[in-house]
Amino acid sequence: MANGNTAPATQQQRRHFNLVRNVATCLLALFVLVGLAVLIAWLVIRPKRFVYTLENGSVQNFNLTDNHLNATFDFVLKAYNPNSRVSLYYDYMETTVTYEAQTVAFNTIDPFFQPHRNVSRVEAKLVALNLALSPSTFKDLRIEKSSGEIEVDVHYKSRIRLKVGIWKSNHRILRIVCPSVIVHLSWYRHFDKIPCEIEP
User: Are 119 and 83 in contact (CB under 8 A)?
Assistant: First the structure.
């Protein structure tokens, strides 16, 4: 009796083992195929990192009065797409100027499309209108103003989609920061180009 019950149980275990092995084999084959597809796509597309540079920056009507700031900032961002097959949709873009971690000016930029192997220049005008400053920020800005230049950070935030052939990716957020931007209060002073960083 004991031996008679053992045989069906052994067969059931063997069938269960074969089922698990077959499922594992199918999953492994699927992972390998997906990996090969991704590798082939990468070898064909050869994606390269987008490059961003702040080409120009200026400020006009800069005025500090009673802990308040009035100013108009103008910046030109050069966006370089070195890819031969990847294009980029910028569905929206925000530009922010910060000083000592305080936002002093903000604006939005119209959506645009950047083809492959393309250089686009993105112009932004940001206005600080009677902006209230903390006493310490006001003091530091006044000191920098007396030197004829101020140092700010310029941030860009965009919702983008990649395009390869007819395929388009899902939306993702692109953040670009151009740190330690020296803006001269005198229009005739030369602006030094700033390489910008893509934040993870």
Answer: no
